[in-house]
Amino acid sequence: MKLLIADDEIQIREGLSEGIDWGKLGIDKVLTAENGLDALEVCRAEKPEILITDVRMPGIDGLELSRRAAQLYAPVRVIVLSGYSEFRYAQEALKLGAADYLLKPIDIGELEDKVAQCCADVRRETDESKLRSAYTALQRRKTVRALLSQGRPLPAELVQEPRSELRLAAG
Fold it and tell me: Tens of pLDDT along 110-154?
């Protein structure tokens, strides 16, 4: 699983990327960006499942970054960091579906707990998606078998399936 840390403060960015044992939390790759636009490019290229972002950064802010990342791909879990305890920032972050809004200075234990929960959520969603896909493929194969056994023509949407899947359905 990939994690992106987007913060214009180098101490925060490097401190988080190097100061936490991300591997024990299920993170394979830690990426960093110093502003919102760079972070968006990293999101496009790497599609990190977890995004830790400062609320205020040059380019685009963390809230806009969160919005755009969610439009680019899913699942993405966002943890917003801020030195501002203004309710409107937290409210907007939660409206965008942020997993949490943490105030600086950051409680590392709390951040680790949130990242671990995000990892679990992403894994669960990925597993559920795989199960739905497998169920759909199974239903499709059952339909093809039933139609073939009755000598009925296959609907166009089933004919478009890969030949290997049709062979499996027929056999």
Answer: 999 999 999 999 999 887 877 888 888 788 888 778 878 888 888
3-class secondary-structure state, position 12: helix
* DSSP-based three-state secondary structure for 51: strand
Distance CA(164)–CA(127), nearest Å, equals 24
Give the C-alpha distances (Å, rounded to integers) separating 170 from 9, 29, 46, 50, 128.
60, 43, 39, 42, 27
Phi, psi (degrees; rounded to nearest 5) at 23: -60, -40
Residue whose tokens read 């993405």: 76
Q: Which residues pair with 4 in a beta bridge?
A: 31, 51
Contact 38, 59 (CB under 8 A): yes
Low-confidence ranges of the chain (pLDDT < 70): 158-171
For residue 90, report the phi and psi dihedrals to the nearest 5 degrees. Answer: -65, -40
Question: Helix, strand, coil: what percent of the chain each, to 5?
Answer: 60, 15, 25
Among candidates 65, 53, 62, which has minimal Cα distance to 12? 53
Measured distance CA(113)–CA(158) in Å, rounded:
45
